[in-house]
Amino acid sequence: MSRSVFDLHMTIFWICVVIGVLVFGAMFWSMIVHRRSTGQQPAHFHESTTVEILWTVVPFVI
């Protein structure tokens, strides 16, 4: 029983590691590619009801 719990733990751990590497990789890539010294201009987002509803509902559904 203990061995199967440990195996489940390790499987979920490695899935979390992969997700973390992907997220941090995307974050660092974005920081390098979109840095201010290259002359990039940020997008101007104003209040978007559709976007706010989506990022409230999607995590709730998940």
| CA(first)-CA(last) distance | 29 Å
Structural class: mainly alpha
What is the H/E order?
Answer: HH
**What's the shape?**
flat
Residues in β-strands, percent: under 5%
Low-confidence stretches: none
* Structure summary, number of beta strands: 0
Give a short account of the largest sheet.
Answer: none
User: How many helical stretches?
Assistant: 2
What does the average pLDDT come to?
88
Helicity range: over 70%
Cα-atom Rg, whole angstroms? 19 Å
Structural notes for this entry:
- With 62 residues, the chain is an all-alpha fold.
- It has two helices and no strands.
- It has helices spanning 2-33, 49-61.
- The longest helix has 32 residues, at 2-33.
- The radius of gyration is 19 Å and the shape is flat.
- The model has no long low-confidence stretch (mean pLDDT 88).
Q: Secondary-structure map with pairings?
A:
Layout: H1 2-33, H2 49-61
List keywords for this structure.
62 residues; mainly alpha
Structure summarized in a few sentences:
Helices cover 73% and strands 0% of the residues.
